[in-house]
Design a protein that fits this description.
single chain, alpha+beta, seven-stranded mixed β-sheet
Length: 563
């Protein structure tokens, strides 16, 4: 019987139009798993300090060179619906944490690969998803148990988190400098354990090197001083933030002004000039010496502002105005008449500087800024773009560590702990779920395995060594430089040092990651894998509701239209 047909008294009944693509049962599951695995494999080689980069070329010849999982997956033209779900996993990880996108995608792919082996043994997908759900909850519990606290004052550890996040990216050569910049930026904008990453503005300019990247305790605005007669630099700036124009407003209705003599014209122009002069006087009366205006400023008003010595910029973006308010402590005023000294913000210095041939304005040395800027530099356009992605990841990692207040060691250490404890936990189940929990445990080891593989080490040897180190009784004496005390290193800190090919205490080596990176990766990867496993029928649909999947592409199993 053909797809989309039912049989009644020897007469076929067409349910779906002729030529409709439909894949049923195990065929659908294998197709989806193959597509998801192909996506995971595409980013797998980028994982870890020794991970490689990808060059993405679009049809116009523009290129992106990156090591960032979510950037790779977003830029790739993926058509297969199940493969798109893995892109969603990476996007969720990026939005929630800002780092660990490759880990999440690779883990989802491995969970599906392990599930495929169980499907081959005729274990029903509902049993697998039930087992995965139990394992997911237990994995999160284990991670929470082995995590350690981190506070705002632990600057050294926060810098290590940022360095760990950048390791393996093009920005690695300047990772220590960049990490310090990121940590200071995050600590500056943090309020009541809340961190809004939007308050860290990233401004890119090619030129110099990544080492020249600097933190501005204030805001960088891509504008220039509007009048040559104005000062280019103002110290001890009193800043007015205006959300209205310094122009003569046009009437809302059509109106005509009849002028019959030159005297009337002159008096009309004089009156316009007086209105603009009064506006400028109101601004100057507030005591400001710097004005940032969200809207336009008339040429005449510019002239009077220059005479008053007020450094002025116009047509500032709304988002920049909000950052200026948070950085300088000023209020955005919508009506010039309401502008008073109390509304003014303060900055140590406001200056116009030429960076890479373009004028930019720097509002620096704000007293207690709740918005800051990072000026990113690098030798070429592609280097600057990759440094920006590395900084975004580091900001995400440091923010997540401070928000949750918990960290774990890196180098595949927590994944191995979860795998080991899940295997023990699986013994308490007598049904087929036990096999699914064990499969989940095996899937967790894809992270240390991939770290070893990407470093050119033997993954099986390294995994065996890692298991024995975490299960064995060997104790390594560690020396704490802060307290001067010696202590036994914890077994759950043992991970793979990809540089030496040895199993070491990763926390002592300074390889630390926020707990949230691990928990979010497991949550989103497991949920996506469970959803894909529950699909047993793929049918080409008509118009889907918003957010629905597109029709199944031709090409059967494999990647469909990925290439």
């Amino acid at each position: 019987m053909t797809n989309g047909q039912a049989q009644l008294g020897g007469q076929p009944i067409l349910v779906l139009p002729e030529g409709t693509l439909r894949t049923l049962g195990k065929g659908a599951q294998h197709t989806n798993i193959a597509a998801a695995k192909a996506v995971a494999d595409a980013v797998r080689t980028t994982l870890g300090p020794k991970g490689m980069d990808k060059m993405l070329v679009d049809n116009l010849g523009d290129i992106v060179i990156t090591n960032d999982g979510v950037t790779i997956l977003e830029e790739m033209q993926i058509e297969h619906p199940a493969a798109k779900m893995l892109v969603e996993v990476a996007k969720t990880q990026n939005e929630e944490v800002g780092d660990g996108t490759t880990t999440a995608a690779v883990l989802a792919g491995e969970l599906l690969k392990r599930a495929e082996d169980l499907l081959e043994q005729n274990i029903h997908s509902t049993v697998i998803t039930r087992g995965y759900k139990i394992a997911r909850e237990k994995a999160l519990e284990i991670l929470d148990k082995i995590s350690e606290k981190i506070e705002l004052e632990d600057i050294e550890d926060l810098v290590k988190i940022a360095i760990t996040s950048m390791t393996g990216k093009s920005a690695e050569m300047a990772s220590e400098h960049l990490a310090k910049v990121v940590v200071e930026a995050v600590r500056t904008i943090m309020e009541d354990k809340e961190i809004d990453k939007e308050n860290i503005k990233l401004e890119k300019k090619q030129g110099g090197s990544a080492e020249d990247t600097e933190l501005i305790k204030g805001v960088i605005i891509d504008k220039e001083v509007i009048h040559p007669g104005m000062p280019k630099k103002v110290k001890y700036a009193k800043i007015a933030l205006l959300d209205s124009s310094l122009e003569i407003e046009k009437t809302e209705t059509d109106a005509q002004i009849r002028i019959t003599s030159p005297d009337q014209l002159q008096s009309f122009l004089d009156q316009e000039e007086k209105i603009l002069k009064d506006m400028v006087n109101k601004v100057a009366l507030s005591g400001c010496n710097v004005l940032f205006c969200q809207k336009g400023i008339d040429d005449v008003a510019q002239h009077y502002l220059a005479k008053k010595g007020v450094l002025t910029a116009r047509r500032i973006k709304k988002s920049d105005m909000e950052k200026l308010a948070r950085a300088t402590g000023g209020n955005i005023v919508s009506n010039i008449s309401d502008l008073s000294e109390d509304d003014l913000g303060e900055a140590g210095i406001v200056e116009e500087k030429k960076i890479s041939g373009e004028e930019m304005m720097f509002v620096r040395n704000c007293k207690n800024p709740k918005a800051v800027s990072i000026l990113i530099r690098g030798g070429t356009e592609h280097v600057v773009a990759e440094v920006e992605r590395a900084i975004e990841d580091a900001i995400g990692a440091v923010s997540s560590a401070l928000e949750v207040g918990k960290i774990v060691a890196g180098g595949g250490a927590p994944e191995e702990v979860v795998a080991r404890e899940l295997r023990e936990f699986a013994q308490s189940f007598s049904g087929r779920e036990q096999l699914a929990i064990k499969a989940f445990a095996d899937a967790m080891e894809i992270i240390p395995k991939t770290l070893a593989e990407n470093a050119g080490l033997d993954p099986l040897d390294m995994l065996t060594e890692l298991r024995s180190a975490q299960e064995g009784d060997r104790k390594v004496k560690m020396h704490d430089t802060k307290t001067g005390k010696t202590y036994d290193s914890k077994k759950e800190h043992y991970g793979i040092d990809v540089y030496t090919g040895k199993i070491v205490d990763m926390k002592a080596k300074g390889v630390i990651e926020p707990l949230k990176i691990k928990t979010q990766a497991i949550k989103s990867a497991a949920e996506a894998a469970e959803m894909i496993l529950r699909i047993d029928d793929i049918i080409s649909a008509g118009k889907l509701e918003k957010g629905g999947m597109p029709p199944m592409p031709p090409g059967g199993p494999g990647m469909g239209g990925m290439y």
